[in-house]
Amino acid sequence: MAYYPKNKIKTNLFTSGGEYQTSLMALLNSSPPITYSGYYYKLADGKTYKGKYPGDGDNEEIFSLTNAPTATPPPPKTSVPPLYPTPEDYKTGYFTRYFKKKINEFLFEELTLDQYNIVYTVLYIPFSVQWKLTGIDIDEVYTINKNTSLLTEQRYKVNGFNEYLNNDYARYYK
């Protein structure tokens, strides 16, 4: 049985029915709900479970009928081709590139700004990189972008990001 500090759990709660159901699949498939009545407890993350407290019975998770999810959201679509720098970006010398990494896989995708703004942080780690476009020579731009990418990989803990970029650190250079 897990220990929860008092500020992370509410115990001895009771519902007479109509608030919770025992099957998430019924919620997602619009099946008739099997409502739950009885004692439950609620954790700080919003999850609720059967029983007065952890360890009281089977502690099966129950789901709110009022805050029911409609369906699992689809992942944002990636841009094909990726967003390209504008003439204004070349004047400033930098361009912001947007990416996402799937949390449980080494899967990276480049996004547009609109797609980046709707990334589901439960499934993905969104991050952006300031990409150098201009410089004295291509070697300078390559080195700056490589160092920026290495720092981004460490900062956001997105291991494998530099492999995803495939050493193309001079991409978009002019």
Rounded mean pLDDT is: 81
Helix content: 10-25%
Strand content: 25-35%
Counting copies of identical and different chains, the oligomeric state is single chain
The tally of beta strands, per DSSP, is 7
* Class from secondary-structure proportions: alpha+beta
- The CA-CA distance between the termini, in Å, is 60 Å
**How do the strands of the widest beta sheet line up side by side?**
1-2-3-4
Low-confidence stretches: 68-73
Number of domains: 2
Number of helices: 5
Shape: elongated
Q: What radius of gyration results from the CA coordinates?
A: 24 Å
Order of SSEs? EHEEEHEEHEHH
Described by strand count, sense and barrel closure, the largest sheet is:
4 strands, antiparallel, barrel
TL;DR of this structure?
With 174 residues, the chain is an alpha+beta fold.
What does this structure look like?
By secondary structure, the chain is α+β, with helices and mostly antiparallel strands. It folds into 2 domains: 6-64, no CATH class; 87-165, no CATH class. The protein is 22% helix and 29% strand. The protein contains 5 helices and 7 strands. The chain has helices at 24-28, 87-92, 113-116, 138-155, 161-165, and strands at 9-21, 35-43, 48-50, 61-64, 94-102, 108-111, 124-132. Strands 1-2-3-4 form a 4-stranded antiparallel barrel. It has a 3-stranded antiparallel β-sheet with strand order 6-5-7. Strand 2 (35-43) and strand 3 form a beta hairpin. The radius of gyration is 24 Å and the shape is elongated. It starts with 8 loop residues before the first strand and ends in a 9-residue tail after the last helix.
